[in-house]
Task: inverse folding
């Protein structure tokens, strides 16, 4: 399994796409490639994060949803491979960490998954 973590505040995604499309996708099974966007709180230059409720406001959430759609679509266009929908999260604020862990566990082989869950 490979987990590609993309920095949410990164505006230049060219290197990320090159890594995914030219190195990772050709060398790993598509169901074993996972992508996550960290620093969701810092996307859009740190604006639109609701610090009181520890989550993105609608404008930021819409931006992050569009970002993960774009990642998924650009990989599909370049390689013909449909990757699992990326997860966005903020490690600093603990936002969507549960979704990231679920993504990892759900995509582990059953034998290894049972070790982690138990």
Result:
């Amino acid at each position: 399994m490979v987990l590609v973590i993309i920095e949410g505040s990164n505006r230049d995604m060219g290197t990320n796409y090159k890594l995914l499309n030219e190195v990772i996708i050709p060398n790993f099974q598509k169901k074993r490639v996972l992508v996550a966007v960290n620093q969701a709180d810092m996307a859009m230059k740190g604006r639109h994060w609701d610090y009181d409720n520890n989550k993105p406001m609608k404008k930021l959430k819409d931006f992050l949803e569009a970002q993960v759609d774009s990642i998924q679509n650009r990989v599909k266009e370049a390689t013909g491979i449909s990757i699992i929908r990326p997860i966005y999260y903020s490690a600093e604020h603990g936002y969507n960490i549960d979704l990231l862990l679920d993504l990892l566990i759900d995509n582990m082989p059953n034998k290894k998954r049972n070790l982690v869950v138990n």
